[in-house]
Write a structure and sequence with these properties.
single chain; 329 residues; alpha/beta; seven-stranded mixed beta sheet; three-stranded mixed beta sheet; binds guanosine-5'-diphosphate; binds magnesium ion
């Protein structure tokens, strides 16, 4: 399952700064050859401390984290649907994404002009106006798509399986300044603007400043500003929540790996994310819970404690299941 998230927002809200910070944090989060496919597309490993624990336990040769693909989508401006800016070029990019990360400017800076050139006065009101502009452009783009389909095929576009932009789940990422990070009134007001969508708060400047730091330094640095998790961690948590995703793990000498599946997925469906043959030839899954494994220290100990289960076709996977599939090819 390839999770792809598109970063949208008005110009000068901090999209590219955040894109760079996210890909940089990802490169650091795991020893994984992360890739920038194009200047605006990056594959980022999902930080998962469980993999480090398993890797030690199994004396693993290789850690393979789950990954998320981020796309920095420029060109969405007021009037984009009428051909302003890069016009509709952003549409194709957004269509391919499962979720949209909508970056909203909520920091004050007299140096960085707002897209509308207005002076910064009321952060809350301006954030609302900015959000409305982007959402209207997405809506207009969908209207246009619908009209095109209707004209071409003389069909009701609502009957077709078109991935409309406004159907995509949105995570709002408010780019706040240092004061905003701990301003609970501001945060709760911004949250209210977009609920029931997920809202997260980051400071793109701080994220950028962490680019040369290792994991421990980052943690300390963020804590000094009263922040628990970095933008990557926050965004991935919100995306998993919004899209109803979870991870299961496989562990062995050859590799320790995290896999992304839907909540509610059955054991054969989980097997299918590894290989379609695994799903077709599914026999059973040998499963233990990550916390049990961590606590007891080894697979043998888990087995001895009677906590290694054999599950069949109807088993519903749980987050943190450590799994070995048995199958017929
Ligand atoms: N003061 C301040 N400046 C920021 C912040 N985030 C981004 N910027 C600056 O705003 C400008 C535009 O940022 P950029 O990431 O290119 O915005 P984009 O147009 O949305 O991609 C750059 O000069 C950034 O350094 C922030 O949190 N605080
Ligand atoms: Mg940019």
């Amino acid at each position: 399952m390839n999770l792809k998230i598109g970063i949208v927002g008005l110009p000068n809200v901090g999209k590219s700064t955040l894109f760079n910070a996210l890909t940089n944090a990802g490169a650091l989060a795991a020893n994984y050859p992360f890739a920038t496919i194009e200047p605006n597309v990056g594959i980022v490993p999902v930080p998962d401390e469980r993999l480090d624990v398993l890797a030690k336990m199994y004396e693993t040769d290789k850690i393979v984290p789950a990954t998320v693909e981020f796309v920095d989508i420029a060109g969405l401006v007021e009037g984009a649907s009428k051909g302003e800016g890069l016009g509709n070029k952003f549409l194709a990019h957004i269509r391919e994404c499962q979720a949209i990360c909508h970056v909203v400017r909520a920091f004050k800076s007299s140096d960085i002009v707002r897209a509308d050139n207005k002076p910064e006065d009321d952060i809350l009101k301006q954030a609302k106006d900015d959000i409305d502009i982007i959402n209207l452009e997405l809506q207009l783009a969908d209207e246009e798509t619908k009209a095109k389909i209707a004209a071409k095929r003389k069909k009701d576009p609502n009957d077709e399986n078109i991935p409309f932009l406004t159907d995509k789940p949105v995570i709002y990422m408010f780019n706040v300044d240092e004061n905003g990070l701990t301003d609970n009134d501001l945060k709760s007001n911004l949250k209210d603007l977009v609920k029931p969508a997920e809202a997260i708060f980051v400071n793109a400047k701080l994220e950028e400043e962490m680019s040369g730091m290792d994991r421990n330094e980052r943690k300390e640095f963020l804590e000094s500003y009263g922040v628990k998790d970095d933008a990557l961690g926050e965004l991935i948590k919100a995306a998993y929540e919004t899209l109803g995703l979870q991870s299961f793990l496989t562990a062995g000498k050859k590799e320790c790996r995290a896999w992304t599946i839907k909540k509610g997925a059955t054991a054969p469906e989980a097997a299918g994310t590894i290989h379609t043959d695994f799903e077709r030839g599914f026999i059973a899954a040998s499963i233990c819970n990550y916390d049990d494994l961590k606590e007891l220290g080894s697979e043998q100990a888990v087995r001895a404690a009677g906590k290694l289960r054999t599950e069949g076709k109807t088993y519903i996977m749980q987050d943190g299941d450590v799994v070995e599939f048995k199958f017929n090819v």
